[in-house]
Amino acid sequence: MDFTLGIPQTSFPEDGDVLRNVGRVVASARERGVDLLAFPENLMCPRELSARELAELSEPLDGPYVRAVCDMARESGIWIVFTMSETNPQGGPPFNTAVVVSNTGEVRGTYRKCHLYDAHGVRESDRMTPGSQLCSPIRTPFCTLGVGICYDLRFPEYARALALEGCDMLVFPAAWHDGPNKPLHWETLLRARAIENECYVAGICHRAERYVGHSHVFDPLGNAVASGSDELLVCRISPQRFCDARDAMPVFDHRRPELYRTLGNK
Length: 266
Known about the structure:
25% strand, alpha/beta
């Protein structure tokens, strides 16, 4: 069944009211017939935050922030993917967590970012705790969804693991840092993950200063379905393309995992 994907490129709200900003985008998505809405990384943050401020902002999964977005999903009838700073029950730095909510307002899946970005002078490991499990496939009426967050995109094993578990669409909420070659890396890696896994891949980028602020959706053959810096990009997704790509180029049938295992331990 074809469906409509919406990818909003939000920034830090000028008035600091995160939920008002989310609600405004959800209302716009409803008007445009969006079925699945995937927000970028940093959605919960009202501005750039220190490690201490991020920890203070964090909430549990049953806190008011998640409940408010669940209410928006139910009222709008839209599936929503969003990120949050999740309180660490062990008392350490918070998790960077993606949450998937159904159109009835139920949390259907969560994922804690596994790969933390310690590069180019940034140290995410100083401000958050890495997750210890990959995202489990999330069944929706439209597709089987897998979620990664930003830096996860640079690890092809991550996307391949989700594809092997049956995901036909991967979404990567991100706050992809800008800089030399960074927009090129962002687009190229998204397209590569789509081609090599023969699935849809969407990269949704936060658009505040110092981030790339440009989002992309690629189909299972690497064709651009949507690309741009609009506040809300909307495109049609056809799961049949997933089936057609795998029928024409059955790379998953041709894999030789018995040859790869010795390499995977290095």
